[in-house]
């Protein structure tokens, strides 16, 4: 169980990310948004194009996330980012496309071994 716990900590990673996103219904729109972000257009200016009505009016806020809780491709693109940076390309999740931005970063407080025991077994 100790090895499984250490492995779980590695998979969790050291950082939590407060994410914002712009959701697009089409790949073409998502790529256009990504290109505009790369050209320096502000994330907030492009948010009005988001198809996610639940987060659009809240700045695209998705709250605090750990990479392990995200689809693998999104986690891979998010991990190297710093505060204020956005993913270099949109990510398809289900039927929609997403451009993510890092709002804040904080160290992840890992769960204690005892808290993970049920899952480790």
Characteristics:
alpha+beta, 121 residues, 4-stranded antiparallel sheet, single chain
Description:
About 40% of the residues lie in helices and about 25% in strands. The protein is built from six helices and four strands. Strand 3 (about 90-95) and strand 4 (about 95-105) form a beta hairpin. A four-stranded antiparallel β-sheet has the order 2-1-4-3.
Computed CA radius of gyration, to the nearest angstrom: 16 Å
Q: Compute the number of strand runs.
A: 4
Poorly predicted runs: none
Number of helices: 6
Mean pLDDT reading: 91
- Structural shape: elongated
Could you say which structural class the secondary elements and strand pairing correspond to?
A: alpha+beta
List the quaternary state of the chains.
single chain
Distance between the termini: 7 Å
Give, in spatial order, the strands making up the sheet with the most strands.
Answer: 2-1-4-3
> In percent, how much strand structure appears in the residues?
15-25%
Main β sheet profile? 4 strands, antiparallel
Estimate percent helicity: 25-40%
Would you kindly provide a brief summary of this structure?
The chain contains 6 helices and 4 strands; from the N terminus they run αβαααβαββα. By secondary structure, it is of the alpha+beta class. The termini are close together.
């Amino acid at each position: 169980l100790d090895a499984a716990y250490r492995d779980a900590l590695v998979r969790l990673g050291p950082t939590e990310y407060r994410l914002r996103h712009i959701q697009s219904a089409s790949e073409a729109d998502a790529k256009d948004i990504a290109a505009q972000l790369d050209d320096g257009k502000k994330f907030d200016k492009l948010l009005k194009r988001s198809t996610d009505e639940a987060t659009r009016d809240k700045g695209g806020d998705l709250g605090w996330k750990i990479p392990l809780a995200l689809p693998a491709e999104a986690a891979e693109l998010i991990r190297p980012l710093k505060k204020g940076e956005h993913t270099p390309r949109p990510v398809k999740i289900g039927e929609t496309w997403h451009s993510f931005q890092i709002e804040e970063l904080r160290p992840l407080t890992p769960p204690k071994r005892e808290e993970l025991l049920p899952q480790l077994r």
